[in-house]
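Changelog excerpt

This revision adds worked examples to the README so contributors can see how folded entries look when concatenated. The first example is reproduced verbatim below.
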Amino acid sequence: MKGNINWDEYFMGVAELSSLRSKDPNTKVGACIVNSKNHIIGIGYNGMPYGCKDSEFPWDNQGEFLDTKYPYVVHAEANAILNSTSSLDGATIYVTLFPCNECCKLIIQSGIKNIIYKDNKYSGSKENIAGQKMLAAAGVNTIYKDILSIKEILS
């Protein structure tokens, strides 16, 4: 590693590290919320709600709705918002994957004003388009950053 990492690399690294806590075999997502002083005020990853054991719920992404992860998993952004330690007004959220439309609603309602994301694998989907429309209408900035992974930075 050469020199120090910048703030974007640092906070995306925290989001990436958080994603490794997820039990999802297909899509591990992490989020890190930062205030204007570059203090971390919330982190999260996609996982089951408190009290729901990971082993007792499905992680499949195909099949009958109730046999998939979709009705059960709490997304990384929602967990980061719920785990926040102070006001989110004007904050920035770093996410490893562009938020879904439902998480966009939560981000807007919480007062977060900037989303920095690493991947947008659902770009062009109806949910992605809806999310982007809402974020634009609410004045939330979305910024793609091609940030190296933790492993790449350390090698």
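The second example, added in the same revision:
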Amino acid sequence: MNYIITTFSNLIHQTAFLNLSWGNILMIGVALVFMYLAIAKEYEPLLLVPISFGMLLVNMYPTIIADPSVTSNGAGGLLHYFYVLDEWSILPSLIFMGVGAMTDFAPLIANPISFLMGAAAQLGIYMAYFMAIFLGFNDKAAAAISIIGGADGPTSIFLCSKLGQTEYMGPIAVAAYSYMSLVPIIQPPIMKLFTTEEERKIKMEQLRPVSKLERILFPIIVTIVVVMILPDTAPLVGMLMLGNLFRESGVVKQLTETASNALMYIVVILLGTSVGATTSAEAFLKLDTLKIVALGLIAFACGTAGGVLLGKLMCKITHGKINPLIGSAGVSAVPMAARVSQKVGSEADPTNFLLMHAMGPNVAGVIGTAVAAGTFMAIFGV
């Protein structure tokens, strides 16, 4: 009888019920909210489903991301090995290749002025950098946190790793991916605040056709120019442009399909689940984490505002030929931010079609955020 009682007692004490803290319960609740947003509201489920499930797993079974150096048998948790690929910048770089293979740079080529709106949307990054220093973070941590303003998860992880700020990687990655997913909620109020009804109704002229030669030369020229100036951007910009060259050359169909589909989705699953698994209550529920989440939101809001305000300036300079809404797409959440520009524009005028125009600043923002990361690495001599 004692054996049976002892056995049942051991089984009960091995369940998660007796090991959950209030913090774990809170994080499980957050995970369920993220799942609801992903599944019921369809807010970027490709990102939120694996992130939220990783968050759910780690708060019931923390060992799933345990480092082998702290386990009794010397074996790490399953998601630890996925997370190592994040720390080594492998998964972020592969995602950039997939994004490049999926992205049409023609709107940016056809309207080069979009580069300026993509640059203006990086305002939030630099504002967040100085605010983070003011809040007590060291300069490298501040740089890693500030990239959240670009709404670019892979770049945030990449820079955090390169600057040696892995202690903040979990909160930074979750904040960046969460804001990427919540673009449809965060951006519209800011866009409407800084624009008038008349400005939102502006219809833009159809973009000029872009030749095949231009499409092929673009990724090659961008790689040469950017990497020559900022060599540290090569893993991100290089992979982005390699993927795009696969797409535009037209001679490597199998590579294009693999990079933009199978490989891309496999990497997103690994990266999203491992990022979500960094949000154990013990690691995530800290004052610094709250600061990072708040700074990320401020940076993202400022980046959106910066793009819209430059759009307003261009609207005046061109005598109403540019709709300021497309400036908000200058953050690098592709193509979500461009879709939001289209949605807000169509609310003002259902016949307005801004999607392709917004894709110019949107893809410029991807390049701009990578350049901002490379600038920080150059400053700190990484």
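Reviewer comment on example two: The radius of gyration is 22 Å. The chain has 20 helices and no strands.
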